[in-house]
Inverse folding.
């Protein structure tokens, strides 16, 4: 039984300045704005500048989330950073961000669950908070996928972008309830049998290189719709809630067609879906907090709203969560 529930105290995000449009990409590989928009809904994406690392994006997002929460780095007990594109093999990018923001207490570590990373990081921080082992936690999703793309492979390089989003979670006494603010429930899954459908073909142990992202797009698409829909059904079923209780659906932003497929299957009206994929592409672990921040900043998501979120990524990893904002 939890003694504390994890309340979202503040959200922040950061996108690198450089924007790469579909027309820009059409000058690099055999593609077109029309093909990319029709198949993915993506119009443009942000790309980190030379020398701008995952930790730099994460630091900016973290500082904005702290400001939104009205808290200082010194108030944080825990920092969990989800990324598949760390600055270095080690130390964890989380510890680099910890130093950057001036957090000289607590503990920090990375989680790699690729596009599901933010859900994994949030559930992990929630467990530490629930047990009273952390009072305040920074949960960050940050990626520079531009560094692991094969810029000659039109089937993958058009899909991804760089960015970071962060959430400050604060422990409040009492178990998560349906009406109170906080993370209501989360559900995580993985199945390593599907690792070869979406992976990076390099790494320190196997190849001593960084490698490039490889994907069987069609099969990922099929698994994404099935697994995401099932994990949403699971969190709703476990909590006795239904789609009509959900105020906002804030999915991982992989592809407009995946978002529409899942929404249609579950009967979520278009007007309740937060989409940023057109402007940002797929930013992997960063996409959920980036979308959350977008909808908070523009006034759509308000305190007390019930937010449903989900993701599927390499591994496969996947899951869903319900948050009362
Ligand atoms: N521009 C023009 N043509 C292209 C491009 C491109 N960028 N990419 C592929 N094509 C061509 C292919 O070569 C193929 O040509 P062919 O018929 O002559 O062989 C044709 O387009 C169709 O290719 P498909 O792979 O069948 O296209 P599909 O409709 O499946 O769309 C896509 C590809 C967009 C990748 C889709 O499968 C998809 O969205 N998959 C989900 C993958 C995803 O989002 N992954 C992100 C990580 S996981 C996650 O976050 C959920």
């Amino acid at each position: 039984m939890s003694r504390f529930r994890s309340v979202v105290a503040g959200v922040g995000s950061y996108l690198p300045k450089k924007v790469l449009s579909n027309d820009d990409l059409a000058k690099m590989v055999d593609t077109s704005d029309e093909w990319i928009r029709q198949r993915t809904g993506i119009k443009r994406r942000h790309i980190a500048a030379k020398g701008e690392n995952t930790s730099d994006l994460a630091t900016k997002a973290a500082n904005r989330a702290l400001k939104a929460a009205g808290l200082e780095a010194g108030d944080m007990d825990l920092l969990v950073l989800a990324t598949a594109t760390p600055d270095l093999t080690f130390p964890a990018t989380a510890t680099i961000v910890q130093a950057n923001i001036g957090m000289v207490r607590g503990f920090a570590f990375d989680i790699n669950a690729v596009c599901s990373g933010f859900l994994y990081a949030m559930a992990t921080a929630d467990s530490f908070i629930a047990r009273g082992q952390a009072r305040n936690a920074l949960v960050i999703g940050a990626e520079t996928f531009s560094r692991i793309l094969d810029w000659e492979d039109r089937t993958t390089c058009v899909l991804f972008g760089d960015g970071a989003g962060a959430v400050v979670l604060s422990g409040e006494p009492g178990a998560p309830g349906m009406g109170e603010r906080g993370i209501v429930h989360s559900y995580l899954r993985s199945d390593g049998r599907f690792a070869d459908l979406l992976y990076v073909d390099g790494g320190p142990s196997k190849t001593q290189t960084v490698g490039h992202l490889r994907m069987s797009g069609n099969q990922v698409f099929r698994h994404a719709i099935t697994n995401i829909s099932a994990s949403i059904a699971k969190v709703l079923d476990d909590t006795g809630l239904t789609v009509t209780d959900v105020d906002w659906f804030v999915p991982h932003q992989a592809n407009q067609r995946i978002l529409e497929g899942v929404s249609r299957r579950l009967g979520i009206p278009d007007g309740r879906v937060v989409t940023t994929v057109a402007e940002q592409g797929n930013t992997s672990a960063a996409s959920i907090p980036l979308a959350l921040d977008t909808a908070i900043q523009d006034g759509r998501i308000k305190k007390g709203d019930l937010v449903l979120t989900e993701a599927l990524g390499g591994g496969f990893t996947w899951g869903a969560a319900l948050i009362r904002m």
Q: What stands out?
A: The chain has two domains: 4-173, 182-324. The mean pLDDT is 96. The domain at 4-173 is CATH 3.40.47.10 (Peroxisomal Thiolase; Chain A, domain 1). The longest strand covers residues 162-173.
